[in-house]
Amino acid sequence: MLNLSMFSDLAKDGSKNGRKNLITAVTDLFLASKNTEAEQVSLLFGDIVMRVLGELEEETRMALSQKVCSHPAAPKDLISSLAKDSIVVAKPVLEQSPVLTNEELAGLAESESMQHLGAIADREGLDEQVTEALVNHGDEEVLTKVANNSGARMAQQTFTQLVEKARSNTPLLEALVKREDLPEAIIKNLGDMVSDELRERLGKGGENETLATTLAGRAMEEVKARASRVGQSMEQAKKVIMAVRAKKTSLEDAVGLFAKGDKAAELGILLATVNSLPAASISSLIYAKSDKPLIILCKANDLDVSAFKHILTMRARRLGTGVHELNDAMKRYEAFTVDSAKTALAGLRASLAGPPDDPEEEETADAGVFLTKRKRPAVQGS
User: Fold this and answer.
1) How confident is the chain (382 residues) per 10-residue block, as mean pLDDT?
2) Where do the record's region annotations for Disordered lie (predicted)?
3) Domain range annotation of the chain
């Protein structure tokens, strides 16, 4: 045990190494003190350390923080100072110190860096006041840590805030659905946001049986609703297509209706019907990489250029193509003649019917922007 004269000698050494030795000595004295002496030693320890804390190197402050972070009798002023230090110094105290009150932790969440907030979020237990401050001021990583912390208590308003922010944050959403303390209203809101893949994982993992059960029921309801909507949509599509065939509705109006509504399947059936082609083959061409087959199908029916633009816009939304590609397709469509399109359509119709290519045919650029086929000339004298 160090005596007072030895402490006096250490205190006289003002060098960095001397300060380090002094802090090491008084820290060891504090940690070795008995419970009956803890309060008195803590006052002495805190007084000495606070006098020289500003002179200590970060490495020494970090070692000090690691030693005293979990001690229940650590000096309050010291712990508060360490909690506001650089993150390498503050982290152990923010994660473990029982000396920091909920009010202090909430205040730190409002004033310190995201790294400090992340350390607070990793504490074994968090009061509602602290989680509220973290959710109000934290970034996506902090919020996900809070949601993953099973010891974090949250008011319903805090849960509601997390759910809203989870709409654009998949890791946060996945963390939330695993919690066992979700209010019923929050579970219902989460059900609208959870993907089919996550629902399947929940059902297998069993992290939250209540949520899994709720989502399973909701999934069945959605399947029925989607089936009903698809059935209704196809019935409506058939009526529109029949109206086009009966010339009660223009092709342009029908194309605009389907393309604006992102109804690729219905648009495929429409184009197949007016061109006497198999619907399955045409539907697969709607989002094909090449737009040439669509140009043939539409131009052969003399579809107005503005209606064709609706198809290109729908394709651009799905394929991510830009304005340049769209404008280029428009120019090629305008330049392509109806007669050339009808000629090309005949070839397209033959290819979709499935006959093998004639080995005596070869490709030649002849019909505008498309390739047509012609017979190879017979070799004389053979």
Assistant:
1) 53 71 86 78 87 90 95 94 97 97 96 97 95 96 95 93 86 84 78 56 50 50 48 76 91 92 86 85 79 92 94 86 87 94 87 47 36 42 39
2) 351-382
3) 1-100, 287-375
